[in-house]
Request: fold
Amino acid sequence: MRKKIVAGNWKMNTLPAEGVELAKNVVAGRGEVCSCVNFIVCPPFTHLSQVIDAVKGSDIAVGAQNCAAEAKGAYTGEVAASMIAALGCEYVILGHSERRQYYGETSETLNKKMAQAYANGLKPIYCVGENLDEREAGKHFDVVKAQIEEVVFNLTAEQFSQLVIAYEPVWAIGTGKTATAEQAQEIHAYIRKVLAGKFGAAAAECPILYGGSCKPSNAAEIFAKEDVDGGLIGGAALKAEDFLAIGKGFAK
Ligand code: PEP
Reply:
């Protein structure tokens, strides 16, 4: 059985005290959601430690939103995977479209970041997805295939078994536009087929999350699709009530 995951990407939002309160509210309401759902919260680096403390004793996992491509050294402003892991983080989001778009992350960088994540025992949540022009030109399958081949195909079978993939169409992120459940299923099934071409039966165990304006009102319909194993949630993860309601997209 594949893991069901609802992960919150808080992006550059919340001050430490706000983040702690949000995390505590997620913990407080968690019991209302099926225990089958694995919740992950991904706060900014600055309050990872406090959020890890806030969720201690619960089954809420914590992830970082990025890590450095290098192990350590003279890289001013960067945060190493080893530092994140030392705090008690379990996951790290890599290849988010905002990082690809605004910070020039390429497959080459992402291969290094993935290597750092695995070397330090972090499980990557690797994001793929096409932009609007690519979708309109019918190139979305080729775009996600390349993003997977250039990075995920370099993993060992053991590493692949720890990977989570998030399909996030860039045109749906923070725009209020959501892919239809059918569009999500179509490309998730395609991603799984591409993965199976390299990793065989293990592809059936890889959680593939949908991301892009996912909210309480559309989560259940999207999560009901066979190859959608949950969501990577941006805006709606900033309110515990909405984040938990998205988790209720999986029946208790
Ligand atoms: C995201 O950026 O990962 C995301 C899914 O954002 P939103 O839910 O706000 O569209």
The first helix runs from residue 16 to 29. The mean pLDDT is 97.
